[in-house]
Amino acid sequence: MERINLFVAIGESYAQHCCVMLVSVLENNPELAFDCCILTDGLSEGSRRRLDAVAKRHADCRLDVRVVDDAVFRELKLNIPHVSRHTYYRYAIAELFPQLDKALYLDADLVVRGSLAELWNTNLGGFLCAGVRDRGIELLHYKPEIGFELDELYVNAGVLVLNLAEMRREGLFRKLCAATQELEGRIRFQDQDIINIVCRGRILELPDRFNFTSEYVRDYPDRRSGAVVVHYTGARKPWSAALCPNALKGLYYHYLARTPYRLARYGLQLRQTVQKTLPAFLRKQPAGVKPIRVALIVNEFFGGGGTAIGGIGFLARNYIAKYIPCDDIRIDVLIGRHHGLSMASRIRVDNVFLYRLPGRHFIARWLKRKHYDLYFAPEMTWDMLHYEGKSDTPLLLWVQDPRPWTDWLEIQTVGLFPETCYWNTRIYESVNRLFKQGRVSFVTQGRYLADKARILYRLAGQTPVEYLPNPIDVETGFDPDTCVKHDEVVFVGRIASVKRAWLFCEVAKRMPEYEFYLVGQSQIEKDRNEEIMAPYRTGIPNLHFVGHLEGEEKFRRIREAKILINTSIHEALPVTFLEALACGTLLVSCQNPDGMTSRFGIYTGPVLGDGFDKVDLFVDAVRTLIKDEARRKELSAAACEYVKSVHGVGEFVRNTRRLIRETARRR
């Protein structure tokens, strides 16, 4: 029978937990033979005796306590409070045991409740190791911070099948140590990050039942019964003073009762019971990084909390609030204020709290009590800062759609249904005041918007404005060369004066050979908008009003079309442009932000007023693109590649978190 080479790395403080793990392994694998090696910097005689006693119960288990000369590991820094230097010992297994070709590494903070035969018999081939995808890391959207794609494999290093022969051939010990020193200060999860970075592309993914971490236990209760290895990840362990939230923590006590440390369970359980009776503010909390508290200032949240559906709300809900919160960044969404009320209201939407602040006389007191570390605004859309009182909280202002007065003059050329002007001097002066106090950092989604922002907020011509492109989800595996597109043209946006959807309808009327789909609905001033659009709803067989769409329905409509038309009198760099380009759908528009329309479609030139006299410009552009199929396919592929390289969610996560941390630290 092949012997399983089992390794664990601990110090004296983890001897009890190692004993629990070892009991669970041996009792659930009576038919297997083990060579168990404990890597340590030293264990007491009492701990050694207890571990020996456990090993001797098994029919065929040889135990080796190997004291490691950890001089090299003392130079490797730690940044997780509950993890010790012993975690680095796994780097050296291949070098310390040159006679072995394969090993199974287990952390000591886990229990095994089934056979390890299948795990041990994993065929590693040319892979360096095998492990289970780390769900905790997935939920933190952390991988972009170390240069990984969001969907790329990143494993939890607490259960690893190691290809020692291949690791020696690759000189992995040296590479792991070098990377740990080189990346110091740039990684968050120390040796686990390093293992994933150095072994990138050569890690075999295992089923989650072989490393069922606390996040899997919480999120997949129906799969708990099939877990072979239950891993108590995070700072809250079953034996911690802080309450352990893991629903399977009882397994630890079950196996603890079968070790020489059995009496310890009474003290641990008593401490947990006492903790449960205490009010929350008195309970022991695990050590960790104090999170940066961010107030996301918006006036809409894409329907969340009954708010409007617009571009800034889409960005706030589907990207900022979804991807940016993590263990060291917490986000609250401030969506406006009550008039005259002294209390704020709060609701939970998705994974964040939405606050509607109290009336203007009470805002300063409320903000002081919340003590935010940073204000983050994708454009300033309401005047909270005017009422904040004395504060030094920095503002990260993400320029999305700044509208100097010259832009409003253009917008007001529309006569059919003039757009309501929301020019707000109070907001612009508040930003200018904070900038003079050194509290504002500017970033922009479009390079050409920087000068508009400088004009709007009365900034010096050389005021720095960093480029932070808007993100867009790119469909995994999407290939523009194989995507089946139809002779369809799509419009995506609100039915509103500034969007001039009537021009899209006029184009459809003149091009009966193509199908036109209008995706959107009226929101503000709905009656007047509907009155204007009513004549187009009948009598044009190739024009289809499909209403508001989200998710896959919307992307399918965009993906199947060859052209997206934008007829707006004003735009910044709309999300719909990015959505279209990500699907290989080309642009026809009278707006050309950062040259995007002329690069991936046809720019008609400026179209002012109601635009009826310029409809033929759109007609000719659509026909030109659809008729030249070779050129359309070439531009389609280039558009997809551009979005992936510039507007990927991974880049957005990495850069936005960096900006938040840097800006908050300046306080």
What does this structure look like?
This protein has 667 residues and is an alpha/beta fold. The protein folds into three domains: 268 residues, Spore Coat Polysaccharide Biosynthesis Protein SpsA, Chain A; 176 residues, Rossmann fold (3-Layer(aba) Sandwich); 160 residues, Glycogen Phosphorylase B (Rossmann fold, 3-Layer(aba) Sandwich). It contains 24 helices and 24 strands. The strands form four sheets. Strands 13-14-12-11-15-16-17-18 form an eight-stranded mixed β-sheet, sandwiched between helices. The chain has a seven-stranded mixed β-sheet with strand order 3-2-1-4-7-6-8, sandwiched between helices. Helix 17 packs across helix 22.
Please give the CATH architecture of the largest domain: Alpha-Beta Complex
Can you tell me the CATH topology of the largest domain?
Spore Coat Polysaccharide Biosynthesis Protein SpsA, Chain A
Total E-strand runs: 24
Looking at how many chains there are and whether they match, the oligomeric state comes to single chain
| Relative helix content | 25-40%
CA(first)-CA(last) distance: 63 Å
Task: Please report the number of helical segments.
Answer: 24
Low-confidence runs (pLDDT<50, min 5 residues)? none
Q: Report the mean per-residue pLDDT as an integer.
A: 92
Profile the largest sheet: 8 strands, mixed
Structural class: alpha/beta
The number of domains: 3
* Percent of sequence in beta strands: 15-25%
Widest sheet: strand ordering: 13-14-12-11-15-16-17-18
Rg result:
30 Å
Q: Please, what is the CATH homologous superfamily of the largest domain?
A: Spore Coat Polysaccharide Biosynthesis Protein SpsA, Chain A
Outline, from the CA principal axes?
Answer: elongated
